[in-house]
Amino acid sequence: MCAFAHRMVTGRAGAVIAGAVDAQVRAVAAGAYVALIVVSFVLAVCVPVMQVVYMI
């Protein structure tokens, strides 16, 4: 009984840790994706604006 309870607790802790790691990986991936969108947007907007300002 004790071993069974220990295994359930260990398994649950492993699942919690795996879930936390999975959530962290998803957060990092989402952050990288958002950063990519922001960088591409900034480049698409700022480069033409800077060229216009430079020409003036």
UniProtKB/TrEMBL annotation:
Q: Where are the bilayer-spanning segments?
A: 32-54
| UniProt keyword annotations, A-Z | Membrane, Transmembrane, Transmembrane helix
In terms of superkingdom, the source organism counts as: Bacteria
Task: Say if the entry is tagged with keyword Membrane.
Answer: yes
Its recorded name reads Dihydrofolate reductase
At the highest ranks, the source species' classification is:
Bacteria, Bacillati, Actinomycetota, Actinomycetes, Micrococcales
